[in-house]
Design a protein that fits this description.
Elements lengths: L5 H11 L2 E3 L11 E3 L1 H20 L4 E4 L4 E2 L1 H6 L2 H4 L1 E6 L6 E3 L21 E4 L3 E3 L9 E4 L4 H6 L1 H8 L5 E10 L14 E11 L4 H18 L7 E5 L11 E7 L13 E10 L1 H6 L4 E3 L5 E3 L9 E3 L4 E3 L2 E8 H12 E6 L2 E6 L10 E5 L5 H17 L4 E3 L5 H11 L3 E5 L1 H6 L1 E6 L5 E5 L3 H9 L3
Parallel strand pairs: 3-10, 22-23, 22-24
Antiparallel strand pairs: 1-2, 4-9, 5-6, 5-7, 8-9, 10-11, 11-19, 12-13, 13-14, 14-19, 15-16, 17-18, 20-21, 24-25, 25-26
Helix pairs in contact: 2-9
Length: 461
């Protein structure tokens, strides 16, 4: 099956209110995007599906929601202040800046010929700000570049307040900020994004097994929500690719760029699952230290607690190892959109349909009156819509702004699993036509039976 390219997804997103360019009214701001009415629903559903599977359906997980602004020391001892940078180069001719690892030396320069590039130099990706009324070095803070550090520094707080035993995890969904040198490819690489991140704390020695289990768990989550297996890959990073503190990392790759001739370059990361050993808790624990890639050590002179767990079986305090599944909400949302997009010929017409998993679909049910100026039909249609939304909890809409055929196509294009048509027969026998998005098949269902009928297909709200 042929894959859709980003241009078609970008066009659909703007046309139907999924995603708009950030600050569009003033010419935009590169690397920022605003989620419209349908995009907000889709993104919230992605987060809900993750939270339900990772937190509610497990017995070994707690939730957390940390502040975006952090004490500067958090990012000093995590190593971000020293090392969180990308290699940057400038073209001496056109004055544009690029990430050194993403620019092709043979790329044409707008001033003619190829780029004349400077030597790479590190560019720190953190957004710096000041806290309080005085803007000096004592009041520097950063917008967090990841949600993970908030979890590590709260390890003891969560442990003490929940009486958890190893292994257990802490899950968090939240915004993070990176001053990307070259944000590009729609919502794939942006400066303000959202993460779904878990830090799963395990006993040293059990980490390899837990790492493998989490790779499978996270891969299967995407498959379970409708991603086709041929568009996903597991990529164990080679030793030279690993972060210096990681024992192992497996990236889950999605086929974001099907138009590229080289098949390997068609796939890029939607999520990473890392074995971070005890690096992070060692950095942040009282009496611990940050060990940098070049071997330098920065002793932690400021932490107030030891971030250890007491193992009653061995009567000793230990620093847990950490497995970290870290997913991007925006990239996951883009993957679900791309995988769901289909075009098919129906008679002489091209039907665009988003085959989103029902759990992710922004609208679950659309209620359509056959005649918009018939009081009886309209009142029943609105009653049905209110019942499904208020009593059953499914996001439902009422639409009478076009003929039935056109209304079906609109709902197909935004991924609505079911359309209900209220017609003259409804007035006689209190049944409605239920149309399935994927098969276009239609059945008559009694209004009283709709909650159960739809629950069997949509799941409970």
């Amino acid at each position: 099956m042929s894959m859709v390219d980003l241009d078609k997804i970008i066009s659909l997103c703007k046309r139907r209110g999924f995603i708009f360019q950030g600050s569009d009214q003033y010419g935009g701001l590169q690397g920022t995007w605003d989620y419209g009415p349908l995009g907000t629903e889709l993104k919230n559903n992605v987060k809900r599906a993750w939270w339900r599977r990772m937190v509610y359906e497990r017995d070994d997980m707690e939730g957390l929601d940390c502040a975006i602004l952090m004490n500067r020391l958090v990012l000093k001892y995590s190593g971000h202040e020293e090392t969180f940078s990308d290699p940057m180069v400038d073209c001496r001719k056109c004055k544009r800046r690029f990430r050194a690892d993403q620019i092709d030396a043979a790329e044409k320069c707008q001033e003619g010929g190829t780029h004349d590039l400077t030597e790479p130099r590190p560019f720190n990706l953190m957004f710096k700000t000041t806290v309080g009324p005085v803007a000096d070095d004592n009041n520097i803070a950063y917008l967090r570049p990841e949600t993970a550090q908030g979890i590590f520094i709260n390890f003891k707080n969560v442990l003490d307040s929940t009486n958890r035993k190893l292994p257990f995890g802490i899950a968090q969904i939240g915004k993070a900020y990176r001053n990307e040198i070259t944000p590009k490819n729609f919502i794939f690489r942006v400066r303000e994004f959202e993460q779904m991140e878990i830090e799963f704390f395990v006993k040293p020695g059990t980490d390899d097994d837990w790492h493998a289990r989490w790779v499978d768990e996270r891969y299967n989550w995407y498959i379970g929500l409708g991603i086709r297996p041929e568009n996903l890959r597991k990529y164990p990073q080679k030793k030279e690719e690993l972060a210096h503190y990681a024992k192992a990392t497996t990236d889950i790759l999605y086929r974001f760029f099907p138009e590229r001739p080289d098949e390997n370059r068609q796939y890029d990361e939607v999520e990473g699952v890392a074995n971070r050993t005890d690096f992070d808790l060692t950095c942040h624990t009282k009496g611990g230290k940050l060990v940098l890639k070049d071997g330098r050590e920065i002793p932690n002179e400021h932490a107030v607690n030891r971030l250890t767990w007491f193992d009653h079986e061995t009567n000793q305090h230990l620093l847990p190892y950490v497995i970290e599944p870290s997913a991007g909400v925006d990239r996951a949302t883009l993957a679900f959109l791309m995988d769901a997009y289909h075009e098919e010929q129906v008679k002489d017409d091209t039907r665009v349909v988003l085959r989103l998993h029902p759990e992710l679909a922004p609208i679950k049910v659309a209620v359509l009156p056959l005649k918009k100026n018939h009081d009886g039909i309209v009142s029943i249609a609105k009653e049905v819509k209110n019942m499904l939304q208020k009593k059953c909890g499914w996001r439902s809409v009422y639409d009478d702004t076009a003929g039935i055929g056109k209304l079906y196509r609109r709902q197909d294009e935004v991924g609505t699993p079911f359309c209900l048509t209220v017609d003259f027969q409804t007035l006689e026998d209190k049944t409605v036509t239920v149309r399935d998005r994927d098969t276009m098949a239609q059945v008559r269902i009694a209004i009283a039976d709709l909650p159960q009928y739809l629950a069997d297909k949509l799941g409970t709200a």
